[in-house]
Write a structure and sequence with these properties.
The protein is mainly β and 412 residues long. It is built from four helices and 26 strands.
């Protein structure tokens, strides 16, 4: 008996006696049936299933793990997993257990390194917009400042996957609308709790940012992440509607609750230098969806790979890697959370084009790529357990701390 046959036989036995969680009978799935409807999907909790299977791919057989989530079940919900600060990271398993999630996957790409800027701290902050529990947390960095593979043509760092207050999942775009009103006039706000600000702009940092240095926000340009840090910067702190402090360089350390730190670079710095301690300043900001009437319970960044059942034009069909993705079906009421296994035997992975194709075969109409490589992590709680366990093999050999993820929650 081959190693593969022994594994499949063990899976069938485990499911029969219900003593092993999530080991599935059968070989790779190639049909188009929805995940929750395929025999062998193990129930984790009301409205939540899990399965794993081998998948033939261009670079060789890979192995994938899939969570099926049914938002039609009122006991089920999704929400953002994150450590409580934008500039902070934690393993997905720790985030899920802290929030009480029954399952989850890692989320957005993030500022993982700063080798191009010696002496500048890597913040760990994510690339795209973020909404948690209905509250706006951060906006998107400029396209040229993002980490991760090249974006498909026509897409943007403002792209998000989210679940609205109507309990429907959707792909969308969240744009920052904000302003800084000063005695000398109004200044556009071009950043919110993000590790990179557009050239010539002003950005805001709140207590949600965390304690990391804000210097990184003034490094690079809108088109070149590795460009030098700006030498023309300024920072002011606003509390209770008045300027209370100013500095020629961005600082570090937590922002006090209720306060806002404004960081400017180039023309933005020149505007902030005109402010004096004691002057009145009003800062306003919000994230606006493509349909302004849409309100999100949670949202996080990445990029779309499938829309309306069709893969996006220009998807990379050459570079295979370990991937994480989320698919949407049934009008936003059913979800598929997919993670490619990073074990050495399967590390060839999938191309982005293959991710889109597999999501479509699994029944998704829309799909969204999340961070991959060493970040790819899928966790799930076995029935009767109080904590989750990692179901895939992270390609780095252990969980990588990440800035956010998608949490699956289910009430008994």
């Amino acid at each position: 008996m081959t190693h593969r046959h022994r594994r499949l036989a063990a899976g069938r036995t485990a499911l029969t006696v219900l003593t092993a969680f999530g080991v599935l009978a059968g070989a790779a799935l190639t049909g188009a049936a929805p995940a929750a409807a395929v025999p062998g999907a193990a129930a984790l909790a009301p409205g939540v299933t899990y399965r794993q299977f081998d998948l033939p791919a261009a670079k060789g057989t890979t192995h994938v793990h899939v969570l099926g989530v049914d938002l039609r079940d009122p006991r089920v919900r999704l929400d953002l997993l994150h450590p409580g600060a934008v500039a902070a990271r934690s393993p997905v398993s720790a985030l899920a257990d802290a929030a009480g999630a029954v399952a989850g996957v890692n989320g957005d790409f993030f500022n993982i390194t700063e080798t191009q800027h010696p002496g500048v701290e890597a913040t760990g902050a994510s690339v795209g917009p973020m909404i948690a529990r209905g509250r706006v947390v951060k906006a998107a960095v400029p396209r040229g400042q993002r980490f991760g593979p090249a974006l498909p043509p026509g897409t943007t760092t403002e792209a998000v996957f989210g679940v609205g207050t109507d309990r429907r999942a959707r792909l969308d775009r969240l744009t920052l609308l904000g302003s800084v009103r000063t005695p000398a006039g109004q200044v556009p706000l071009r950043g919110l709790n993000q590790y990179a600000l557009p050239v010539n702009s002003v950005g805001a940092f709140t207590a949600q940012w965390g304690g990391a240095s804000r210097v990184r926000a003034t490094c690079g340009t809108d088109t070149e992440r590795a460009a030098a840090c700006s030498r023309d910067t300024y920072e002011v702190t606003v509390r209770q509607g008045r300027v209370v402090a100013a500095s020629r360089t961005p600082g570090r350390g937590p922002v006090a609750a209720g306060a806002t730190v404004l960081v400017g670079r180039e023309a933005g710095a020149q505007r902030l230098r005109k402010l004096s301690v004691g002057e009145r300043v009003t800062v306003r900001h919000r994230l606006v969806a493509a349909d302004p009437r849409t309100r999100y319970r949670f949202a996080l960044g990445g990029y779309p790979v499938l829309r309306g059942g069709r893969p996006l034009p220009g998807l990379d069909g050459t570079t295979a890697a370990v991937r994480t993705a989320v698919g949407i079906a049934a009008g936003g009421r059913r979800l598929l959370l997919l993670a490619v296994d990073g074990a050495p035997a399967y590390r060839s992975g999938l191309t982005i084009a293959e991710v889109a194709g597999e999501m479509r075969r699994l029944g998704a109409v829309d799909a969204f790529s999340l961070d991959g490589g060493g970040s790819t992590t899928l966790v799930a709680r076995a029935p009767g357990r109080r904590t989750v366990s990692v179901r895939n093999h992270p390609s780095g050999g252990a969980e990588r701390p990440v800035p956010n993820g998608i949490g699956v929650f289910s009430a008994p």
